[in-house]
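Q: C-alpha cells for this one, please.
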Amino acid sequence: MRVATTALPKPPRWSDAARRYQRVRQRLDELSDEERELRNRLLGLCDRRRAFGAGVELIRTSRKGAVNYGAIPELEGVDLDRYRKEPVEVVKINILASPGQ
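A: Here is the predicted structure, written as C-alpha cells:
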C-alpha cells in the first residue's frame, strides 16, 4: 500500500501536539540513556543467571540466533513471500526541528 506524503498544515492542535511530543521524546531519550547505564551497572553486579533484590529481578537467558535464509542454498529460487504472514502497519515519527521552531 502506497500512501502519498505531504506537509500538513499547522493548525494549533497539530502544533501543540507536535511540540509536546518533541519535549516528551527528549525526556524519554534522556531516561533511556540513564536506564541503559543502570542496566549495565546491575549486569556488572550480577555474576549469576538470576538475581533479585530491592524490587528488581535480573534473569540472564540466551536464545537461538536468527536464521540467515539467504545462506541456505536449498532455498535458492523459493518464493518465501508465499509463507509470509499478513503485513503490519509500522508508524515512525521523526523529529525534524526543535520545539518552538
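A few notes: The chain has a mean pLDDT of 88. The first helix runs from residue 12 to 45.
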